[in-house]
Amino acid sequence: FTDGESAKMRVLVVAARRDSVENLLATVRKAGLVPELVDLSAFAMVRALYVPAPVARPGGSDGEGASGEGASGEGDGARAAGAAGGEAGLATLYCYVGGVTNLAIAVGTTCAFNRVLPNGVESMAATLAERGGLTLEHARQWLQHVGLERDTEGMEGEAKILDQARQVLQRGSARIADDVRLSMEYYQSAVPDARRVEQVIVAGPGIAIEGLPAVLEAELGLAVEPRSLGQVEVIPGVLDGVEGSELTIATGLALDEVKA
């Protein structure tokens, strides 16, 4: 998009189904509340990223009887369940690390808790831009280039900016992890019958920063999986030149339904 004078900027327009929004608003109004703003991003995130847990077959995956590995619940099917949508009754924490960090805790496809955290990729980029005298776009590129895993010695780029980017990433990722941990603690104490969180799914531009999911996994003590889209099938070539990690929320809004 451009007005003819300014530089071009990319714009993504997404349409959500009216009946999906109206059903949510009807529930709020029925409770006697007057909605002033509708933020569907948490629901969209869960819809886009959710993957149902495979059903474990009796007797294990190799067809053995009750004496086999599957009888104890420790077979391949049980392990696969933890890696996909989680065990029945347990919760999954979805975390979209973008301009801010959007957090949602869901049981299956039902969102039980949502919170928007102020720290995200954009706040880190703004900090680096200010310290290094960079544009925001260049700061974002430096954050992706440096990441959190590789040694900065020998890395291409000015040493001062490399060190600044690494420091910003370390402090920023620690803040995000702290915010997520505190949100989980609040969820467990404030939500009636809160289900235990068993895994974390990380999405958004943050997963393009090498090492960020691993830092969150170490800080939270939970399995963390980076994911852009869940059950969504993408036609080959359609997303060429587009970062799939930036389309998670838009995809969730556009989905007609999600199979639980």
TrEMBL record:
Compositional bias annotation for Gly residues: 60-75
InterPro entries: FtsA/MreB (IPR050696), PilM (IPR005883)
Gene3D superfamilies listed in its UniProt record: 3.30.1490.300, 3.30.420.40
Pfam families: PilM_2 (PF11104)
Region feature (Disordered): 58-81
Protein name: SHS2 domain-containing protein
Organism name: marine sediment metagenome
